[in-house]
């Protein structure tokens, strides 16, 4: 499947919603070699999580991966080999997970919350919820947001 | 940069909500001709397939950081209904798309412009702000501000129209026959439904500032009938006449401006729940009310306040009626 790679890259390089250094490894499907944790910088932007390689000085090198955060399962992994680990499991292959090891429990929780709220579907249901609340209070269907022309965004 | 394509493909074909779908023609990057593709918009991802129902998309466009514009090509050449998705930045591509007709093109352009993540985020923030504003108004209502309070913290209740002649009210059975009814001749049209005094404008009470803590449990507690005796104290009989005339004028204006279907009788005055109160209107009725207030004796100085309150309130109801 073709995808707009350069455009996605420019998205990755914009100022992120959340960013942090983290340890990352993949868990393999059966038979795949499970590698050890690697130093990575992860950036959350819109509903994508981007992974960057860093060098010894902590400078960002090239992006090495992008994960679409829709319909994925996010959970803490208390029984993992390290502490404060959470995982992202994707719907197409639940065995193939992204493991991320944080430096503290709070960091782990914060990331999980941020990633959970990042999905477009989550925002969509938020909007429906708020519109419902508004219409219950005002007796009108949800107050309409005026169309914001693209130029103003 | 490796995108997890399997996951994205799975998202394209899974049962998540579709924002828009349909056939469009897409211009190739190398082959400059238009190819017909089935497009599927899910959130900020625009997938395109060879055909509807295909298992795997040919490609996906991430709609972030782009603008949707009419194509300059369309004006130059003979291709109408052509628009573009334009990305900024080095090495990025412009996707040229053609719809079958003008309406299709417009509807796609609108959908794509609103698809991006930031727009949705703005929507959420705007709705949260509107909710907060409503809640804040409810809080302010407790501070005794009549106008704000009339709106705030007041959940719409089913209102009871005491003037509804269809509704049986044992306290207010209109005299149809009997000692107090008007004499009716054989050819006289029946009198209009009896209205007790002037239709009650918002309460004028010779009491301290009406607190909006009298939150209505039913409408009747909030809008108590005008105490006509107190009005007469203000001046001569003409004043009260003016008042009632003014009141009925105001009342009629409210009726006319209200388009509620149940606005029979005085119910229009009850039913309006104004969302935005603006004090820009000044109904002629309120002028006479103000005049009557001006004639108030010093001893009834509170009436000035009340009348002003009435004027304000009549504005309030006029506005609401108009806005309805």
From TrEMBL, chain A:
Top-level taxonomic group: Eukaryota
Pfam families: PH (PF00169)
Entry-linked Gene3D superfamilies: Pleckstrin-homology domain (PH domain)/Phosphotyrosine-binding domain (PTB)
PH domain span: 15-120
InterPro entries per UniProt: Boi1/Boi2-like, PH-like_dom_sf, PH_domain
Family matches, as PANTHER family: PLECKSTRIN HOMOLOGY DOMAIN-CONTAINING FAMILY J MEMBER 1 (PTHR22902:SF9), SESQUIPEDALIAN (PTHR22902)
Name of the protein: Pleckstrin homology domain-containing family J member 1
């Amino acid at each position: 499947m073709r995808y707009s790679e350069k455009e996605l890259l420019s998205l990755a390089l914009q100022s992120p919603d959340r960013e942090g250094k983290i340890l990352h490894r993949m868990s393999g499907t059966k038979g795949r070699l499970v590698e050890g944790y690697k130093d990575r910088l992860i950036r959350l932007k819109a509903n994508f999580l981007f992974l960057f390689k860093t060098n010894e000085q902590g400078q960002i090198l090239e992006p090495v991966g992008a994960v679409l955060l829709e319909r994925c399962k996010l959970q803490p992994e208390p029984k993992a080999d390290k502490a404060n680990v959470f995982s992202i499991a994707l719907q197409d292959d639940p065995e193939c997970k992204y493991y991320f090891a944080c430096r503290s429990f709070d960091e782990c929780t914060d990331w999980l919350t941020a990633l959970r709220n990042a999905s477009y579907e989550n925002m969509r249901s938020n909007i429906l919820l708020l519109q419902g609340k508004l219409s219950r209070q005002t007796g009108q269907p949800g107050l309409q947001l005026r169309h914001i022309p693209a130029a103003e965004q | 940069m490796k995108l997890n394509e399997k996951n994205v493909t799975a998202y394209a074909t899974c049962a998540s909500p579709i924002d828009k779908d349909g056939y469009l023609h897409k211009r190739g990057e190398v082959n400059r001709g238009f190819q017909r593709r089935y497009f599927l918009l899910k959130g900020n991802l625009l997938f395109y397939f060879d055909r509807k129902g295909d298992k795997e998309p040919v490609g996906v466009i991430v709609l972030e950081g782009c603008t949707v514009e009419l194509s300059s090509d369309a004006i130059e050449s003979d291709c109408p209904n052509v628009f573009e998705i334009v990305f900024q930045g080095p090495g990025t591509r412009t996707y040229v798309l053609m719809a079958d007709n003008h309406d299709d093109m417009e509807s796609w352009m609108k959908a794509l412009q609103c698809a991006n993540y930031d727009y949705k985020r703005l929507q959420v923030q705007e709705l949260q702000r509107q909710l907060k504003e409503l809640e804040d108004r409810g809080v302010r209502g407790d501070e005794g501000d009549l106008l704000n309070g009339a709106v705030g913290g007041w959940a719409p209740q089913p209102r009871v129209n005491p003037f509804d002649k269809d509704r049986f009210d044992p306290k207010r059975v209109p005299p149809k026959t009997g000692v107090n009814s008007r004499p009716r001749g054989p050819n006289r049209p029946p009198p209009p439904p009896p209205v007790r005094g002037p239709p009650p404008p918002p309460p004028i009470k010779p009491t301290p500032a009406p607190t909006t803590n009298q939150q209505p449990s039913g409408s009747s507690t909030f809008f108590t009938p005008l105490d006509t005796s107190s009005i007469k104290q203000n001046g001569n009989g003409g004043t009260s006449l003016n008042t009632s005339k003014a009141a009925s004028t105001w009342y009629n204006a409210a009726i006319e401006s209200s388009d509620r279907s149940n606005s029979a009788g005085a119910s229009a005055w009850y039913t309006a729940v104004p969302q935005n109160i603006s004090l820009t209107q000044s109904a002629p009725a309120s002028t006479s009310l103000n005049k009557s207030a001006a004639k108030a004796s010093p001893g009834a100085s509170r009436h000035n306040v009340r009348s002003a309150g009435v004027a304000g309130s009549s504005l309030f109801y006029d506005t609401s009626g108009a806005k309805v």
